[in-house]
């Protein structure tokens, strides 16, 4: 590992992640998480022009809460594709649409899709294990490394948390602290701005009182977000 | 209902088949994983009812599935402890729910009431000092658990939801994360020990919202409590004083709870059904 210790660039070690969702393992997901993105405008242009080589879900990573948030959107999109229920052009745009809190496709792309100003990017490619041998981990990896100007990070909760804009995510899914200000019917109006804390757990006797830790808050937000996404279109 | 095959994609043979846990009148509940191999989930599947007209059947399935999903998500938004919704497909009839690790309150009562006499349970702490400390410990843990049950139900009712099937089997004790690690997490999918928890610490979590309704009145809330009371007294006759503690804490848990408790007395007099029809 000569010279490895003094390298700053973790992308040397990071790789495009291959994830197989349980029950949908015929559709492997190739996922890349990039920080310090420099060519959002170029990537977005390829998307708008319908360049077939850039058939990806291109997501602004600041709108993403966790790994499961992403996987839930992918599951929904692939499952809807298999049932002939896509609301958008293809499974990749459907992943972006699936992230949205309501049925408005334009809103979903504005809130979760890549924008010219995007500097943190999550890229997903849905493969086809059985028939589509052209799309492989290596082909996706090579294409993204050649075309995305940014720093590739391992796709995990720690790195996602480092990029997410919690205030924005709360707003997108209408999660406010006033929604669950605690017990006793006390609606704490002063907290309604949601400035510091998001979802609050009921102050159950068995748990500790007081505000949630950042980690606990993310768990609560994830539950609300996944539920919201699951019921979309009903 | 006899054997049912799960809808796609859960019928996919390349993944481990979900294990059937319970079969109710409306739905089958399986244990499986969702989104990742280390995320256990309860998969609730409402198979088509062949005796119903297909259009009506689809509409009812969708309605009931979505009602459950909406209520659960509302509860999580408001900080009520219950399973989160991980995914759903109302056309196919399934909903994937967060797996709640732990023990039913029924199981906890079974274990902790065992060996305790009715008068032991009711006795105050002062008298308890003469008793051996292990029993005193058990008793105080039980009383504390009852307070948590009262608060959990109170919080649910406060946000305008009634459960509709509030039994001691639909209330879970989820041990603190620190105790769950090792006990369950070492082997995802491993059943918790059959003899119940070692102690009664943890959160009270409500499960099975299949019959839950929103926009409720005090009458509905009172009936919820009445059903729970009957569940207590029928399976744990010695637990009557404990249920009083549930109601006491419930009464203090939100504005309006006292009115519901008064309503409960009326419901007790006449039984669960308000109208004499049906």
From TrEMBL, chain A:
Transmembrane segments: none annotated. It comes from the Eukaryota. Keywords: Nucleus, tRNA processing. It is found in: Nucleus. Pfam families: CGI-121. One of its GO terms (cellular component) is cytosol. GO terms for biological process: tRNA threonylcarbamoyladenosine modification. Belongs to the CGI121/TPRKB family. Component of the EKC/KEOPS complex that is required for the formation of a threonylcarbamoyl group on adenosine at position 37 (t(6)A37) in tRNAs that read codons beginning with adenine. The complex is probably involved in the transfer of the threonylcarbamoyl moiety of threonylcarbamoyl-AMP (TC-AMP) to the N6 group of A37. CGI121 acts as an allosteric effector that regulates the t(6)A activity of the complex. The EKC/KEOPS complex also promotes both telomere uncapping and telomere elongation. The complex is required for efficient recruitment of transcriptional coactivators. This is EKC/KEOPS complex subunit CGI121. It comes from Rhizodiscina lignyota.
UniProtKB/TrEMBL annotation, chain B:
It catalyses: L-seryl-[protein] + ATP = O-phospho-L-seryl-[protein] + ADP + H(+); L-threonyl-[protein] + ATP = O-phospho-L-threonyl-[protein] + ADP + H(+). Residues 15-278 form the Protein kinase domain. InterPro entries: Kinase-like_dom_sf, Prot_kinase_dom, Tyr_kinase_AS. GO terms for molecular function: ATP binding; hydrolase activity; protein serine/threonine kinase activity. One of its GO terms (cellular component) is EKC/KEOPS complex. GO terms for biological process: tRNA processing; tRNA threonylcarbamoyladenosine metabolic process. It is an enzyme of class 2 (transferase). Gene3D superfamilies: Phosphorylase Kinase, domain 1, Transferase(Phosphotransferase) domain 1. SUPFAM superfamilies: Protein kinase-like (PK-like) (SSF56112). It is found in: Chromosome, Telomere; Cytoplasm; Nucleus. Its EC number is 2.7.11.1. It comes from the Eukaryota. Keywords: Activator, ATP-binding, Chromosome, Cytoplasm, Hydrolase, Kinase, Nucleotide-binding, Nucleus, Phosphoprotein, Serine/threonine-protein kinase, Telomere, Transcription, Transcription regulation, Transferase, tRNA processing. Component of the EKC/KEOPS complex that is required for the formation of a threonylcarbamoyl group on adenosine at position 37 (t(6)A37) in tRNAs that read codons beginning with adenine. The complex is probably involved in the transfer of the threonylcarbamoyl moiety of threonylcarbamoyl-AMP (TC-AMP) to the N6 group of A37. BUD32 has ATPase activity in the context of the EKC/KEOPS complex and likely plays a supporting role to the catalytic subunit KAE1. The EKC/KEOPS complex also promotes both telomere uncapping and telomere elongation. PANTHER family: EKC_KEOPS COMPLEX SUBUNIT TP53RK, NON-SPECIFIC SERINE/THREONINE PROTEIN KINASE. Component of the EKC/KEOPS complex composed of at least BUD32, CGI121, GON7, KAE1 and PCC1; the whole complex dimerizes. Belongs to the protein kinase superfamily. BUD32 family. This is EKC/KEOPS complex subunit BUD32. It comes from Rhizodiscina lignyota. The lineage of its organism: Eukaryota, Fungi, Dikarya, Ascomycota, Pezizomycotina.
């Amino acid at each position: 590992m000569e010279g490895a210790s003094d390298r700053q660039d973790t992308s040397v070690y990071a790789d495009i992640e291959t994830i197989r969702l349980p029950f949908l393992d015929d559709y492997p997901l190739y996922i890349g998480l990039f920080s310090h993105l420099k060519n959002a405008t170029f990537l977005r242009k390829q998307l708008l022009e319908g360049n077939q080589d850039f058939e990806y879900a291109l997501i602004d990573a600041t709108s993403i809460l966790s790994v499961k948030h992403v996987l839930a959107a992918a599951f929904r999109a692939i499952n809807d594709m298999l049932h002939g229920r896509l609301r958008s052009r293809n499974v990749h745009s459907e992943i972006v649409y699936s992230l949205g809190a309501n049925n408005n496709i334009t809103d979903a792309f504005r809130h979760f899709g890549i924008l010219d100003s995007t500097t943190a990017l999550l890229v997903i490619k849905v493969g086809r294990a059985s028939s589509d041998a052209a799309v492989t981990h290596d082909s996706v990896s090579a294409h993204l490394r050649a075309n995305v100007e940014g720093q590739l990070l391992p796709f995990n909760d720690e790195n996602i948390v480092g990029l997410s804009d919690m205030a924005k995510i709360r707003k997108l899914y209408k999660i406010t602290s006033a929604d669950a200000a605690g017990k006793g019917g006390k609606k704490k109006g002063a907290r309604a701005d949601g400035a510091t804390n998001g979802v609050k757990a009921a102050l159950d006797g068995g748990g500790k009182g007081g505000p949630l830790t950042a980690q606990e808050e993310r768990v609560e937000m994830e539950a609300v977000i996944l539920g919201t996404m699951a019921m979309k279109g009903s | 209902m006899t054997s049912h095959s799960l809808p796609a994609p859960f019928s996919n043979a390349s993944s481990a088949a979900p294990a059937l846990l319970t079969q109710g009148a409306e739905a089958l509940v399986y244990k499986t994983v969702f989104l990742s191999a280390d995320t256990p989930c309860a998969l609730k599947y409402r198979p088509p009812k062949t005796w119903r007209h297909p259009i009506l059947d689809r509409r009812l399935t969708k309605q009931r599935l979505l009602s459950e999903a909406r209520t659960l998500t509302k509860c999580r938004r408001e900080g009520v402890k219950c399973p989160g919704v991980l995914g759903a497909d109302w056309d196919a009839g399934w909903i994937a729910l967060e797996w709640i690790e732990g023990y039913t309150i029924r199981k906890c009562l079974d274990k902790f009431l065992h060996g305790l006499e009715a008068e032991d349970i009711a006795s105050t702490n002062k008298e308890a000092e003469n008793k051996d400390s292990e029993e005193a410990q058990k008793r105080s843990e039980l009383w504390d658990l009852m307070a948590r049950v009262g608060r959990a139900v109170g919080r649910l009712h406060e946000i305008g939801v009634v459960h509709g099937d509030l039994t001691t089997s639909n209330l879970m004790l989820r041990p603190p994360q620190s105790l769950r690690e090792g006990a369950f997490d070492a082997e995802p999918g491993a059943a918790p020990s059959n003899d119940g928890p070692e102690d009664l610490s943890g959160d009270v979590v409500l499960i099975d919202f299949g019959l839950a309704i929103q926009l409720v009145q005090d009458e509905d809330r009172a009936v919820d409590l009445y059903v729970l009371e009957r569940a207590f007294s029928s399976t744990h006759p010695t637990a009557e004083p404990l249920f009083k503690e549930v109601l006491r804490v419930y009464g203090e848990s939100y504005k309006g709870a006292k009115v519901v408790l008064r309503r409960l007395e009326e419901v007790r007099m006449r039984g669960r059904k308000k109208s004499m029809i049906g």
